[in-house]
Amino acid sequence: MEDSRVIRSYRKGDEYAIARLYNLCFSESGILFPRSPQSWVWRYVSRPRFDPDSVFLAEDSGRLVASLVMTYGDMSVNGDSMPVAMIDDVSTHPDHRRRGFAAMLVQRAIDRAKDRGCRLVHLTAGTSGTGFRIYHRAGFRTVTTCDVMFSVLGGRESAGIVGPVLSLPMIAAHAILSMKARKSVDYGLRLEEMVEEDAGVRLLATYQKLSHRNGLLLAGQNYGRWLIGSRPLGKTSLFAIRLLGDIIGAMTVSSVHTLFHGRPAKIASIMSPLMPEELRTVDPVAAALKRAGRFSAARLDCVAATLLTDSRDTITKKACQRVGFLRVGSTASMVHPLGEPGRIGELRKGLWAQPLETAKSAP
């Protein structure tokens, strides 16, 4: 019997079918960070180093049934910069699951990353479920788990929108933590939004000086300009962290359009503040998160905020709790070593951050 399955790369116009498939697959949990054709093109086609042959599309009898996107960058890993590939948006139509489509696309992506000279492939995945098992069988290994932290930024109306994320005990705990957060010490720290044309370039330079975290993208000027450029369905704001007039760190806040069980809302995706290790204590990190939350509510009209932090990062976790964030889940940061399995042990030694473009499908 002739096999009706075909795997091909991206062609202009495919974004409509890709966005429909993504939205169908990722809406099953009730919490969706939707893709429009326009936002998909911004996120991938307009991104520096876009490679149409790294968009893998599986068709069955001419119908798109699975997709995977892989992007490229230079990543900080244990103090070194190395070329890496990053897998995103792995989607398989519900009617075509358990037929090997996702496994085929993942293997094609691994082979493509090797051909392009990448040192490793990075992805994030839920710590349970079919996807995690597929990645593990393909050779990916967990280097750390990241806690998904969540905070309601507004009042009763905001809590009503995002309520499905939190259980009743969590809502009560959040209210207590939020009261404490309002009384917390400001620590003399402030955020300065970078809005000039070269803001992305300046921020990336600051990140590179503070590249003690694995997983940070050490990208160039084009990436910086792309990151802060106009985008559909959201915005990324870049901040310098100042203490007593001196810049001591940097962070990003992305507003993301979301559907909570069909109700539209905007949430802020906050990247953990980066600071020199000698200054990175609970108080300044908490102060930075507090100010980022205020900015997100007042300027970006966000009803909630989320961030991912390495589960071993006790400083950021304590800072989150101090300003009203609660842990609502976890995700695995996974790496394929591309023929060098001995590197996995080394990769597990350092704390991991998420790549700089933080508009991810989490929580």
> What structural class is derived from the secondary structure elements?
alpha+beta
Task: For the record, give the distance between the C-alpha atoms at the N and C termini, rounded to a whole number.
Answer: 42 Å
The value of Rg in angstroms is 20 Å
CATH architecture verdict of the largest domain: 3-Layer(aba) Sandwich
Write the CATH fold name of the largest domain: Aminopeptidase
Give keywords.
13-stranded mixed sheet; 11 helices; single chain; disordered C terminus; 2 domains; 363 residues; alpha+beta; Aminopeptidase
Describe the structure concisely for a colleague.
With 363 residues, the chain is of the alpha+beta class. 32% of the residues lie in helices and 32% in strands.
Description:
The structure is a single chain. This protein is 32% helix and 32% strand. It is α+β, with helices and mostly antiparallel strands and 363 residues long. It has two domains: 141 residues, Aminopeptidase (3-Layer(aba) Sandwich); 187 residues, Gcn5-related N-acetyltransferase (GNAT) (Aminopeptidase). Helix 9 links the parallel strand 11 and strand 12.
